[in-house]
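I am writing to request your help with a piece of structural work I have in hand. I set the record out below, with my sincere thanks for your time.
___
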Amino acid sequence: VQLVESGGGLVQPGGSLRLSCAASGFTFSNYHMSWYRQAPGKERELVAFISTLGGDTNYADSVKGRFTISRDNAKNTVYLQMNSLKAEDTAVYYCKRPRGDVWGKGTLVTVSS
């Protein structure tokens, strides 16, 4: 069972990034998925959640209207589209399979001019 994040990097405030999380070793479409983040000196927090078929999503208040979680079950991949990025979005972003507490290793997003 493995989750591998990609797509992080340095972006200016107001910019956009799309994170991807490629899953392997399990039947991806059977599992809800989520994205978390951990900023320097802060606790890890839930950013977004998506149900197995993508029909149910929810978001942290701090990212509502700016971030969109989606998934492609044919590609075993979950995405996080991040728009209107702010300095406070700077963090390591982690993909998580809640059932079984499976985590990826994270990808760093830095929002800075």
Q: What stands out?
A: The chain has a mean pLDDT of 97. The two ends are 37 Å apart (CA to CA). The chain is about 0% helix and 50% strand.
